[in-house]
Amino acid sequence: MRSQPALRVSRALLTRRLRELERAGVIEIQPKPNGRGSLYVPTLAGRELWPVLQALGDWAEHWMDATAEHADPDVVLWSWCQSFLRLDLLPEPRLVVRFEFAQHGRRTYIWLLIEHRDGEICNFDPGFGDDVVVVINDALTFARWHLGLVEWTAALRSGAIEVEGPRNLCRALPTWNAYPDFRRRRRAEHKRMPGGAPPLPPEAVSVRKPRPTQRRVGPLAGADNPRIQRPAGHRRGRGVRRRACGLERCRRPAGTASPARPSATTDWSSTCPR
């Protein structure tokens, strides 16, 4: 369960709220198999709460409009890669996608590292070179595309999003996001059925499969791993790994901007409770 960075609350306050949910019988706190940290698993009562959260999310989408104030590209990328990344469509070879956008008057860079048909977000250059570069000139249009309100091709024609790289990768990139099609289907169901379609269970919304309990091999897993091909001059460091079970912090090189934390008013009902 990813928590503190997404909710923009202190760790102490977050821990207290999670304990309150546990006492209320909504979640169950379990130790991780590797002994580090905890897993927050919804109980039966918590799972039955999911239709309520889904209904609130559907109501907000029907009556509220996305605004530039809440159109944070970092939030969109987190939602995309955490819950709606189409793993079945990802290429097998290692691939790095760099996202650029203006944030608080500074240029911010975030990398999507794809390897072994899995993806993770990095706040610093993983060091393998950029295969595709996505420049987000209009954060609101990028957010509206993620919500299924704007077509990717329309965003490209308007100049709100610019993509550079091999033609086949540039054309495949938007297909790796399952959320736009999901939201369009939900809106169509609401138009056909009075009161909207029945809410979906959490496992039907998220397209990511549960991660294995063992440590996944990746570019930052260890210098002696034969599966890792490090670029020349690459320095081993502690990398940012945004996983279904949590967030491990990293050291960013000096001078790089830290992406803004998601707003507390962000609608998280589209993601599965962990």
List keywords for this structure.
274 residues, Nonspecific Lipid-transfer Protein, Chain A, disordered C terminus
Describe the structure.
The protein has a domain at 66-209 and 239-248: Nonspecific Lipid-transfer Protein, Chain A, CATH 3.30.1050.10. Mean pLDDT is 75; it is low at 1-8, 212-231, 234-252, 261-266 and 268-274. It has helices spanning 4-7, 11-23, 44-63, 73-83, 139-146, 152-158, 167-172, 179-192, 202-205; strands at residues 27-31, 38-42, 95-103, 106-115, 118-122, 132-136, 161-164, 241-242, 247-248. The protein has a five-stranded mixed beta sheet with strand order 5-4-3-6-7. It has a two-stranded antiparallel sheet with strand order 1-2. A two-stranded antiparallel sheet has the order 8-9. The chain is of the alpha+beta class and 274 residues long.
Helix residue percentage: 25-40%
CATH topology-level name of the domain at 66-209 and 239-248: Nonspecific Lipid-transfer Protein, Chain A
Shape: globular
Strand order of the largest sheet: 5-4-3-6-7
Number of helices: 9
Oligomeric state, counting identical vs distinct chains: single chain
Low-confidence stretches: 1-8, 212-231, 234-252, 261-266, 268-274
Measured distance between first and last alpha carbons: 5 Å
Specify the CATH architecture of the domain at 66-209 and 239-248.
Answer: 2-Layer Sandwich
The SSE order reads HHEEHHEEEEHHEHHHEE
CATH class of the domain at 66-209 and 239-248: Alpha Beta
What's the number of extended β-strand segments? 9
Into which percentage range does the β-strand content fall? Answer: 15-25%
Query: Main beta sheet: strand number and arrangement?
Result: 5 strands, mixed
Instruction: Provide the residue-averaged pLDDT.
Output: 75
Q: What would CATH call the homologous superfamily of the domain at 66-209 and 239-248?
A: SCP2 sterol-binding domain
Give the radius of gyration.
19 Å
